[in-house]
């Protein structure tokens, strides 16, 4: 399902725990069947975007095209040739975004010799008054509509604040470039049948929200609680940001980022993510053993294969929590952020075709995929209760 990214965020913690206990009792799906289907990989031809240098405070060493080590050899190739769709590359909605007018900043010195900067004119006795024109922040143009329902209160302001907040954190921590501006098309739908018709993909009819790379539109199935609606919206806004600046990221990392930043709450001059908000669900979804086969399974799933349920009820939700936990682990410290930043930078240079993320992680994460699998498993079995401020 390369045209859609989706959200199944409407999950009660208790129900999740029960569902995941049932799912985990089935055991982790073996990776051997998928490994048997693996085809030796050659780099797929893809339009190449301009190389993007890390813009954040941390830099990523070049990823050498060296043979993969350890668990990477078990992983099915993600770089198989596939039809290239222009909608699966970068969104390029900057042209549709409305540029903000420059902001006038007043600079002056008061009687005590203190220099002031303000968007308000100075008092009459100010000295050295100058007016400085500062370009506005990158614009986010929100076009929201209700298909069969009234829109939530303060939708425009909150959507812009959330988009800019998540964009800032992705830039500051992962070096994701900030576009000159972007346009968000959002449609809220109440009726289940109307939502299924609008989404157009049967397997996503029960989802809470979707982002389509084809028409660059977010669709949210309206719920009774506004905070749930905004959590779903943040999830889908993250998909839109990935489409805008990174490209067709492998689905497990795309959904993991969306789950992580779907938990982002704006406030004051920044925001925060409550990492341990769903500890019970994470514990129930933790992989068995050393996590190697589970990590292989998660990273190898392509497109609609991530969203299917073929073993037991709750299987899809378990994948969401595992993808979220992988990103939460990588976002925990500098070495993890550098490894994740390496994946995003590599994808941005070839945005149309999902890269082999396992190769980049194996090369960029200290200890390779073996250590990453072990730490990911430990992280899920004993999730932290910290709240991360950004």
From TrEMBL:
Keywords: Signal. The keyword ATP-binding does not apply. Residues 104-140 form the DUF4124 domain. It comes from the Bacteria. It holds the Pfam family DUF4124. Residues 1-17 form the signal peptide. The keyword Secreted does not apply. InterPro entries: DUF4124. This is DUF4124 domain-containing protein.
